[in-house]
Amino acid sequence: MFKKLIYLLCYCLLFVSIPSSFATANQSDRFNIIVSYNVKSDYLRFLDGRDPLSISDFSAPNSSRDVVEIILLQQALHLGGNKKPYRIIESKSSYVTIERLHKGSALLTGTSVWKSMFVVQDDLDFSSPVINDGQFEVGIYTQQTNEKMLTVENLQQLQARSAVSNRIWTVDWLTLQALKINKVWHTDKWLSMVRMVNNKHADFLLSPFQSNADLSLNIDGIKLVTVPNIKVALYGTRHFAVSKKAKGSKLILQQLNDGIMQLQANGIIEKAYRQAGFFNEQVENWQRLN
Predict the structure, then answer these.
(1) pLDDT for 75-101, tens place per residue?
(2) Would 107 disulfide with which of 20, 31, 115, 154, CB 3.0-4.6 Å?
(3) Number of domains in the chain
């Protein structure tokens, strides 16, 4: 009887160990898509339980350029033939994103980036552009009661004010320098920028236009509004970054580019950006300051 119990116990342990090993193997096959933590929360609210591959209408209160890019990325991978499982992981800052890509612990970014964000590019690839040169226009966002900002009408008046940005966002940072803004503060977290403007520690930040009727930027209970009738262009092309150090990166890049080509041919990328407010008809006739 004792021997039978031993045999039964060994059999049960073997049986239990198989699913655990199988699960580990499946997890090791997954690759990581990295996005900013605040973008992931907006993305999940936008989805509201829906399958991202089923999305054809990109307009919603939580829609934004970053959110629709996560969806476009997944749709492109699917169209390109990707069958591997993946997960979307969070990054607390641009520094973390860059580090994880260089190490290969994240295979690709879930939102588009400027190539110039990466000082070292030897271990990175970049997808075909999803935003072409000259298409990236941003609003000048400020606190709702900052009257000095809300009455700015030209570059000379803007130059007397202060901005907040991130040095790693090289295109944004260099654009503000080229505009000769009086003071540009640095912080590496998006939410910190929003809070600084809301507390009037900085007068404004640059942000893509939003899909709301009033173009307002709503983050963590904070509402910022855009200075009317003026805008800024950020020049360059935007791509998804792919880590060469991650397993299967060459195939993923090929599948991603194939999918991007199909989305562009069908007009889906332009449609998504328009419905998200990034390509915004309301500001087409606003004055570009650069």
Answers:
(1) 999 999 999 999 999 999 999 999 999
(2) 31
(3) 2
